[in-house]
Amino acid sequence: MAETLITGAGHINLNAPADSMSGAMAYLQDKKSDFDAVPPLNLGDLDITTDEFILDEVDLHIQANLEDDLVKEALKTGVDLRQYSKQVETELQRIEQASIKDYIKESQNIASLHNQITACDSILERMEGMLSSFQSDLSSISSEIQTLQQQSVSMNMRLKNRQAVRSQLSQLVDELVVPSTMISVILDSPVTEQEFLEQLHELNNKINFAKELSFRETLACSDIQDIVDRLKIKAVSKIREFILQKIYSFRKPMTNYQIPQNTLLKYRFFYQFLLANERTVAKEIRDEYVDTMSKIYFSYFKSYSSRLLKVQYEDVADKDDLMGEEDTAKKDIL
């Protein structure tokens, strides 16, 4: 049976020819000189070559190897361990060669698999980049959604606030705005038209509203105050002229004053407007009306009284007129 020596250079067959053995021995001598040239290592407690090495541990290792199942089986069958070791080594070499052949046979598939794995790695890397980008986009979208939600809540709150003040502001704006229709009617239309009377009512409301705002010190009042004052002056001027003409018409001889009086009653809001906005003109018109009507009534009563006096003294009793009758019944009793 071949004996094999295991060295640092590999396996040396002890049953080989002499030439081979002499070469192996020369090789070992060279290696030994190399080992001698190397300075010894100080391994400390790990140095098992010292005299302090405990042989009991070697016995334990040997006992453990003897208890191996394969070693027990080999010892039972009486197989030479050296031959058995060589068979095992040969089997391992055969298996190694077969494995190498299988590997070489499948080298193309393995290379293809390697390329596919490399391609998959690149694809996965790109997908990882895409997913990272997608994650960052999602985070930005999430922040944008939160921002939009906050803006939505803010806009909803502002909408509710605007709806709450809408009615009040709309009423305020309607009262503050002076339409062009009012301006044209007050300036150009005659006072006898119904449209002038309607716009005069609206102007009176705006004047009162402007006064109320001025008491509250509202700045918006100054925007319309000038226009309202001009319209008021124009309306007062036209109303004064109209009423004075009607009052002066009473003074004409043989005039039925009840007709213009009824006309003035139809436009009694004119005097109410003057009394509320221009008391001086209202007092002037009232004094003029009182003076005119007092003169008219005075002339009527004076004429009436003179006519009564004239009727009284036209037929005067004389001596022939019987003023009373004597009671004869009372005389007979006496």
TrEMBL record:
Signal peptide: none
Residues in Vps52 C-terminal domain copies: 291-331
Chief location: Golgi
Keyword Transport annotated: yes
GO MF annotation terms: syntaxin binding
Domain Vps52 coiled-coil: 102-274
Keyword Protein transport attributed: yes
GO terms (BP aspect): endocytic recycling; Golgi to vacuole transport; lysosomal transport; protein transport; retrograde transport, endosome to Golgi
Keyword field: Golgi apparatus, Protein transport, Transport
Pfam family, one: Vps52_C
GO cellular component, one term: cytosol
InterPro entries associated with the record: Vps52, Vps52_C, Vps52_CC
Subcellular location: Golgi apparatus, trans-Golgi network
Family: Belongs to the VPS52 family.
Protein name in the entry: Vacuolar protein sorting-associated protein 52 homolog
Organism: Phoxinus phoxinus (Eurasian minnow)
